[in-house]
Amino acid sequence: MAQKNKAGTKKQGKRLNVWLILALILLYGLVQAGIMTGIIGGFYENVLMNIGIYIILTVSLHLIIGITGQFSIGHAGFLAIGAYVSAIVTMKLDGPFYLAVIAAGLAAILAGILVGLPTLRLKGDYLAIATLGFGEIVRIVLLNIPYVGGASGMRVSHMTNWTILFVAVVATVWVIYNLTTSAHGRALLAIREDEVAAESMGVHLTYYKVLAFAIGAFFAGIAGALYAHNFYQINPGNFGFLKSFEILVFVVLGGLGSLSGAVLSATFLSIVNTLLQSFPDIRMILYSLVLILVMLYRPQGLMGNKEITDLWPFTRRAREVGER
Amino acid sequence: MEWLQQLINGISLGAIYALIALGYTMVYGIVKLINFAHGDVFMLGAFVGFYSLTVLHLGLIPSLLLSMAVTSVIGVVIERVAYRRLRNSPRVAALTTAIGVSFFIEYTMIFARSAKPEAYPDLFSGQQFELFGASFRVEALYILIIAVLLMIILQWIVHSTKIGKAMRAVSYDAEAARLMGISVDRTISWTFALGSALAGAAGVIFGLYYTRIDPLMGLIPGLKAFIAAVLGGIGSIPGAMVGGLLLGLVETLVSALGFSLMRDAVAFIILILILLFLPTGLFGKNVREKV
């Protein structure tokens, strides 16, 4: 009986994949058509860009906090590195945009490894403060480099478009989904649940923590490149602790350990962000209240570690990732 | 005599850090929580002091006391509303809540009175005094007197009163303290009250010395004070005092050498180095990891 069920879900899983790919192509085509015909105007296009960039950021931090359990609150540092490196490639070196995106990701990986190797020996709140320190150091260093404009920042031309954004978002979600369902992903989950137990089962703690950190940093760097080339101006002030906090709220609200939760909360909150654009104070008050209330009454986040597919019996996973 | 002047600057800054760091370290010692909102309590203290000096026209000492009273109540309320429920949940949940509380205070303040900075009234009309051929602002003297006095009072409370004894007992072993009939909740409330009062006092003297206050002023000094607490060994009261002074001196030194823009970065680099090579700080106890 159990075997039959398992085989059934496998088959269903395959069918689901086909539908998913079709749906994605349809989504891409519809939006692209909308943009080309001008039905989706500049404002809505910008909202879409924001949603995409925040999905990448949230999913990448989800890998670090939700899956690996490493509480990092300096994610804006990687975003900043990606933004600046890509801006240097396109604006100062006149390189093509796709190269800038890749360079941004690689630079962020490098930063992730450099920061991760020493700091990931720390735990819990100490790690949090050290990563916060990292984010601040990045911001202060950028402030003091005249080559990238110091406090006034850099002018960047608008190059992010729907195609590259869509590819980046799908790639991010796909890579992180596959990573978490692989053997490596189980090692990361084991670290989240209990470091000592994971280590005694042969999980190389430092290697896996740095791996998660580097991959998270890579995608944050890519998000940085897209971010920089979506707005016309970047400056160090865009990448302060507030930004890290924002991403943290997105991850926590979606549910610590839920990929679809991360995507949903990033989508929803980016829209809320846009709606509250002219009331930044109220937005921050709301965010902090939501964060406090979620932590007090539903500390696992809105989705917990469930995925959206678990809501309907016919798409439920055979073995739940990170089931507690 | 420039170095002497820098020394006094460093000590004044260090005394402010030390006062804030005491609150961090006491709270951490007792509930193992980095009270992220502590820097914002410091900010509120500065504003209470400012309004009581300018609107209520009170003197310096009454303003200081009023600010300490208000911030201690705020500290107790924060603990009661936001942290008490989370005492037994994972530390990360409590830390996230603390960050939320911090932003809530900051942006409620901005919402209530806009983000514009205020200038503290000049109580001493720029008076200076001479010492060994160097001249100092009178405020520096006040900072030192107030800070030292408060630290002596704190030492007395922690070591010679009943509530101090209860605080030490709870931070040593909360369960055993409860069995001995100590009300753990009440002791934790007292700890928050004391720590927040010190932060409030630090806010007032910060305003006196640096003049400019604004709703986001708590973030950086708060983080620096946390670094000071880690430097001295978190959970240790003398450690927080020494750590605060050291950090103040180092920062002033960095500024004096002409790297004032990198000052904040240096503090964070110190933090990361300390966490890596001396995680228990200068005065901390070594706690063995148990499975």
UniProtKB/TrEMBL annotation, chain A:
One Pfam entry name: BPD_transp_2
One cellular component (GO) term of this entry: plasma membrane
GO MF annotation list: branched-chain amino acid transmembrane transporter activity
Stretches assigned to coiled coil: none
Membrane topology: Multi-pass membrane protein
Keyword Transmembrane helix belongs to the record: yes
Protein name: Branched-chain amino acid transport system permease protein LivM
Organism: Candidatus Carbonibacillus altaicus
Classification of source organism: Bacteria, Bacillati, Bacillota, Bacilli, Bacillales
Automatic annotation (TrEMBL), chain B:
Xref: Pfam families: BPD_transp_2 (PF02653)
GO biological process, one term: L-isoleucine import across plasma membrane
Localisation: Cell membrane
Parts of the chain that traverse the membrane: 6-29, 64-83, 92-112, 140-158, 188-210, 265-284
Keywords: Amino-acid transport, Cell inner membrane, Cell membrane, Membrane, Transmembrane, Transmembrane helix, Transport
Keyword Ion transport: no
Membrane topology per record: Multi-pass membrane protein
GO MF annotation list: L-isoleucine transmembrane transporter activity; L-leucine transmembrane transporter activity; L-phenylalanine transmembrane transporter activity; L-valine transmembrane transporter activity
Residues in the signal sequence: none
Matches recorded under InterPro entries: ABC_transp_permease, BCAA_transport_permease
An example Gene Ontology CC term for this record: plasma membrane
Family the UniProt entry places it in: Belongs to the binding-protein-dependent transport system permease family. LivHM subfamily.
Annotated protein name in UniProt: Branched-chain amino acid transport system permease protein LivH
Organism placement in taxonomy: Bacteria, Bacillati, Bacillota, Bacilli, Bacillales
